[in-house]
Amino acid sequence: MKLCIFAGTFNPIHNAHLMMAQYAIDNFGFDKILFIPAFKPPHKDYDSQISEHRFNMVELAIENNSHFEISNIEFQRESKSYTYLTILELYKLYNVDGKINMLIGTDAFEKIESWYETDKLKELVDFIVFVRENEKVNFDKLKEKGYNFKFAKMSFCDISSTEIRQKIQTNQSIQNLVTKEVKEYIEKNGLYK
């Protein structure tokens, strides 16, 4: 199976996330995109009360796409969500054709050398890097250090989870930024108020 993972905080998952995953299916021929919500993101502030909500929202957002699946692998561990440990587990769980691929934004990829066990991780994963419009990036040094990656040429969709949370706090509409199911879930559970 050609497997690609999309790991993140997804706080909340939004339409640009879904477009990135669909782009990867359409352009790189993966059998499956495995969404992996972080239980305790190592590089971000962690709110245990919202973790389960983040997971539920991802589940709702992807339920109608047969190529998308959610994994609770980092929730089972209940410790910090280190990608390296997750990847080791996934190779045991799935019969992977070649290497596992990973969707990543340039902001995260720029910091990849600070990640836990990064030298081991780069041997296990090929990265698909999504570049923001008009963003100048140069990852030649990472290429020289053995990070294997290619760029996604998707047209940029300017949505951020931070923007969505801010809109909710100021009672602005988030329609067209998240799926109908995610919007209803946020409203029903009074999230980000």
Please characterize this protein's 3D structure.
By secondary structure, the protein is of the alpha/beta class. It has one domain: 3-Layer(aba) Sandwich (Rossmann fold). It has 9 helices and 6 strands. It has helices at residues 15-28, 48-62, 73-77, 83-93, 106-109, 118-124, 140-144, 161-169, 180-189, and strands at 3-8, 32-37, 68-70, 100-105, 125-130, 149-152. Strands 3-2-1-4-5-6 form a 6-stranded parallel β-sheet, sandwiched between helices. Helix 1 links the parallel strand 1 (3-8) and strand 2 (32-37). Helix 2 (48-62) packs antiparallel against helix 9.
Could you say how many structural domains there are in total? 1
What's the count of strands?
6
Order of helices and strands: EHEHEHHEHHEHEHH
Mean pLDDT figure: 93
End-to-end Cα distance: 41 Å
- Low-pLDDT regions: none
